[in-house]
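Worked example 2:
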Amino acid sequence: MAKLTDPQQAEEAAQRLLNDRMDYVRRAIATRGALDEAREALKEAEKNDAQAFQAAVNNGGWTEDELRKIGLSAPEKVQRVQRRRKAAQPTPDTSNSSAQNGGGTEPEQ
């Protein structure tokens, strides 16, 4: 390696090394931005997919079973929401019988 005695040359050499290293940071930032955009696009596409599936069921006269038979399964988000909704809404009989049985106990069957 050549010995640098000129401060200007040393500064230029150091700047070249920094520029090379900064290229990696620039690429990492650019690809991270592209990844963030892709994630947002995926969220939007999943939302649109769920809405279109629900519209087919609610407005189009299709059942989930019919759609599944032709190869269109329910989006995962729709499936999760439906399961929670069913479990979270107690029937009037369940809420009355649990109140009569002292609160949180289930009636014996």
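The chain is about 75% helix and 0% strand. The CA atoms of residues 81 and 87 lie 10 Å apart.
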